[in-house]
Amino acid sequence: MRIGQKVRVRERSDVVIGEIATGPNRYFVLERLAERREIYRVFDPTAGPGGDFRALHVLPAGKATEQRLEVLKRVSDGNSNFPTIVDFHREPERVIVVLAWIWGTPLQEKLRAARAGDRRQRLSAGEATKRIRGLAHGISHFHHRANSVHGDVKPANIVLARDSNRQFVLIDFGSAWPTERTMERQEGDGISLPYCAPELLGETPFADFRSDIFSLCVVWYELLTHQIPYGVGGAAGLPENRDEFAGKLVAASKLSLDRGKLPAAAWTKIDAALRRGLALEANRRFSDKSEWLNALDDIQHELRTTRRLGLWNQLLLAALDKIGGKHSEPD
To answer: What is the Cα–Cα distance from 133 to 116, expressed in whole angstroms?
Structure first.
């Protein structure tokens, strides 16, 4: 295979623009995926019949890279919300890590299309909540298995997988960091407004599982409302603004296009979970991962119970919710 040659995988056709070797393995570069880091979509001719795409990361050799490799190795197996390491190779100046390619739609693209009016790309409130719950469990497993914080949960790093499970998969570990070493994070590492947790924006930044909860709740809120929490593009988390915006989150139920499609009881629980998960002070969020996951599991149980009702019962509940909504709204 040579530069300029066409490669076709499934429905995609690309032209080879380069080659990267990792010992005996050769990967053919098709696209650069990041501006500030060396991440590529490559073709692996040995990946099954006809080959397949991979995500190839080129990292500088050093302590920080070794720490992140340690994190990746702990979680790449047995966690379907994260891609699997298929190859890595150490060289004197760099380390090459090759991850399985996740076939699906980037969540950022879906949100952009939905905002532009493409209803086919919009996730319903029920489906969005289900996918967020699944990813929350995957991130919790990541915290437990790797004792690490992902640090950069945002739509650009999430893919809605095309497989039968249609789950959210986190595809970038560039800011993952062992929890006990969060004070060693480089300046700007994992800072992606409006998804970054407020505690990473202060003079003495720190991160733990609550930081990833905040970021995931921003994504959840955005999926439900197509808006950013607090309405100021992430500026509410800046130290000088926190007192002004504390407690002023608008309930997702009041902004969602699916307001009348879920029972009031489900919306009450969704709003309560988002209110805690999006608290600007880390100590006001969920006190531990179990409490967070239990809240999401309780919401999913509420939604499943509703789906088991017959059509007429669902319509009746929706009508009662509207009547009740005239007198009270979820906080």
So the answer is: 26
Report the DSSP pairing between strands 38-44 and 25-32: antiparallel
Fold type of domain 104-325? Transferase(Phosphotransferase); domain 1 (1.10.510)
Alpha-carbon gap, residue 185 to 232, rounded angstroms: 26
CATH of domain 7-100: 3.30.200.20
Distances (CA, A) of 166 to 80, 102, 162, 172, 292: 11, 11, 6, 18, 22
Q: List, in order, residues 6 or more apart from 117 with CB less than 8 Å away.
A: none
Spatial distance between the Cα atoms of 165 and 134, rounded to a whole number of angstroms:
10
Q: What is the pLDDT of residues 242-268, one digit of tens each?
A: 989 988 999 999 999 898 889 899 999
Determine the Cα–Cα distance for residues 190 and 231; give it in Å rounded to an integer. 21
Worst-scoring range by mean pLDDT, 151-160, 290-299, 301-310?
A: 301-310
Domain limits of the chain? 7-100, 104-325
Give 290's contacts (C-beta < 8 A, 6+ positions apart): none
> Which stretches within the chain are classed as H helix?
63-75, 107-115, 125-146, 209-225, 242-245, 264-277, 289-308, 311-325
Determine the number of helices (DSSP H) and then strands (DSSP E) in the chain: 8, 13
Quote the pTM value.
Answer: 0.84
- Positive or negative, the CA dihedral 305, 308, 311, 313 is negative
Going from the C-alpha of 202 to that of each of 19, 228, 241, the distances in angstroms are: 42, 21, 11
